[in-house]
Amino acid sequence: MTDTRAYLEVSPQQGAAFFGSPDNGPVVMLNLLRFRETADYAHAPDRAPPAPVSGREAYELYMRAMLPLLEASGGAVLFSGSAGAFLIGPAGEGWDHVLLVRQASKSSFLAFASDPESQRIAAHRTAAISDSRLLPIRAD
């Protein structure tokens, strides 16, 4: 069975499970992103650039504005790069961008993500992506 839904935000159940489990130090977030051809700012027209931009360009706006806040929270981008089809995985499934972000802890991630300025900037991310995956990773 193929799941054709787009995943753009954390569900209440997934958020409760993640933040309700023990906070055992650093966590790396694996982000898989699929961009819209043209960014969609219908949810936040006041944040839209003066002329239409691609999803990739809107995501670049998001990252430029978000990086100082991420670093101030103790986080860091470990890797950012273009992606495509899987070598091992579903044929025809591909992602445009992969991002690895380290946070000192789940609580620092929550503080960063719930900061009002972070939420304001996130309008660019929402406009940029058509689908995503976010997988928290911990060292063994």
What does this protein look like?
The protein has four helices and four strands. The termini are far apart. A four-stranded antiparallel β-sheet has the order 2-3-1-4. The protein has helices spanning 12-20, 55-72, 106-114, 116-128; strands spanning 27-35, 76-82, 97-103, 129-137. It is of the alpha+beta class. The model has no long low-confidence stretch (mean pLDDT 91). 16% of the residues are buried.
- The count of strands amounts to 4
* Helix coverage percent: 25-40%
Strand numbers in spatial order across the main sheet: 2-3-1-4
CATH class reads Alpha Beta
Amino-to-carboxy terminus distance = 32 Å
The fraction of residues in strands falls at 15-25%
Q: Return Rg in Å.
A: 15 Å
Our count of domains comes out at 1
CATH architecture term: 2-Layer Sandwich
The sequence of SSEs as H and E is HEHEEHHE
Low confidence ranges: none
Number of helices: 4
Oligomer: single chain
Shape call: globular
CATH fold group: Alpha-Beta Plaits
Largest sheet: 4 strands, antiparallel
Q: How much is the average pLDDT?
A: 91
In terms of structural class, how would the helical and strand content be classed?
Answer: alpha+beta
